[in-house]
Design brief:
This protein folds into two domains: 8-139 and 162-216 and 305-313, Spore Coat Polysaccharide Biosynthesis Protein SpsA, Chain A (Alpha-Beta Complex); 234-303. Helix content is 48%, strand content 14%. The two termini are 39 Å apart. By secondary structure, it is α/β, with parallel strands linked by helices.
Amino acid sequence: MRTFLPVLAIVVPCYNEEASFPLCKHALLTLAEELIAARKIAAESHLLFVDDGSSDATWSLIEQASQTSARVKGVKLSINKGHQAALLAGMEYAKADILVTIDADLQDDVQAIVQMVDAWHSGADVVYGVRNDRHSDSLFKRKSAAMYYQLMGFLGVKQIPDHADFRLLSARAVTSLLSYHEHNLYLRGLVPLLGFPSQRVFYARKKRVAGEAKYSLFPMLKLAMEGITSFSVTPLRIIAITGAVILLFSLLAIISIIIQKASGNTVSGWSSVMVSIFFLGGVQMLCLGILGEYIGKIYLESKARPKYFVEKLTPTPGDAPSDGQ
């Protein structure tokens, strides 16, 4: 049981969130004040908005908010590097005892943060925000999500079902998470590997308060592929097993052809030959694609390029604006 009042930093990645930012800022500031008044977090607690290379007025709004409220801070990335990189940047720049990550669209229930903080006080280092249902999603999204979690479980990936990136991390959990240096980020799979005491907080997911959704079908598929290939070599083993099975059937087919040839019962034709060629060609292309995905990851990791660059930081009161250097 923890008794001291922790400094809480709420990290919010933003990409073209001009419409939702004012609502998000108000909701989170109100929540922070309530937690401070209830003596659950320290008065130095704050919000940290990470602008992931937005092309709208998101950064201007963050700067204005930081000038009117000491609880609002901001980090501006020089170019859009993706949701996972923005989250990582927020974790690296946040100075706090506990850290909560939440998206700016307010689909995640901010009141669940109260339960997360309570869970931290009771001893948890990681608190997962987990959806209690998916009724707000389309039928396709519900079915595809269920299949994805089943697939990840089959591949041996430790991932919390119905949990995205709404979570609380203690300082030591954040430090441990930042010790992972891979370029291909999939935080949803990395956090469970930390092994620290964890709890789950269930909440009802809401509709986006404003703006447009950033995760369309293609980015979701890309993130899913990232998770599969970053944490499991099972697809490579499936290729080997598939090759062995095809080899076995080929040997049986050769034996059958030899027997038919010896008995004089061979039938000329091209259909079976063409089907076999197309089938084997398709299997080979699929296998090459999977191999290419893994080789591409090795290529990117070997470069060891920076995950992001910080262009600006919001100044603290009395300081000049920082360029992130």
